[in-house]
# Entry
Amino acid sequence: MSTAPETTAEAGAGEHLVALEHPMFSRIAGISFRRSASDGTAVMVVPFEDREASVPLKGLQREFDIPDDSPDGRMLVLIAEALHYVTALYPGDPLPAEVTSGEASWSPAGNHLRRAQIRLRVALLGWQDPAAAKLAIRDLEGGGRMETDPELKTAMQHATRRAAGTLNCAGPDEVMARLESLSNEFAYIESLRDRLLLRVQALVTRAKRMSSTLSRSDVVRLDAISRVIKMTGTSVDDMEGRFGKIDEICHDIIALLREPEVRIAFVRENRDALYRTQLGWEPILEQWDHVDEDDEVLLWQVVANTYQFLARRYLAVTEWPSFLGLRESLGSSKRNMMRW
# Structure
């Protein structure tokens, strides 16, 4: 089953569409905007017979003397930002909601909304009754205990009444309404926890298991898999740091309920950063999801692809000579296991 998020962006007002005024953009047929596969630069792609030519947007702006503060200059900035969330844009396409309204252009699943609701309620319980919160946290996967357990229901009623007084709300119902609204925001975080963090952590576990089965004489494979583990660990550390900060906001539930706008802005900023990371990782994660452990050739090709993906992002410049040497060794290997 695919784990890619469902996109829900729809065409909105005219200013939310890719629209450029310079005659050059209308004279050339079939143009699109993408990110360069080599370095991630935002480019305009022009079809040329059976090939394509790409021009960096910054260079394009200079070449045609498009000022930064002109409508086209502002649109090119929006296009570059939008390409963090979509793979390509064409003239007339809607810009993703992330760059127009701050909303997400994709939807979490129902179980993620449910999990977000429970996390927020557990946080409120923890503020009132830490013991009840420890009992309720077991309900994260949807057991329904918070709705059926009399002790937890009573504890939740006490917590909402106390919170209503602390926050000067009209009553417990207003507190619950605020929690429900916040759940819609945190559902995206729960989705990304599943679609990104847990899958990359599983990749590390799997790579370590593969490494443990290799002979010490298999130098090429040991070197490749150890570097994959190291670089993936760097990525996981960054992800865990972002999720940790978001979880801290969720845990500080009264501050969140009192000033949701300030804290949700931070949550959305990290949501979008994690989503961009997820889009980058998705092709690699899909390969790991579908490769069979028994297909040794394909499995190590996936390792090779992961290595190349990570090297572009995490390998220090001083390490590139050894990286290129390893590529050469792999390319000449009689095993023919790892080529790119």
About this structure: Residues 183-331 form one domain. The CA atoms of residues 109 and 208 lie 31 Å apart.
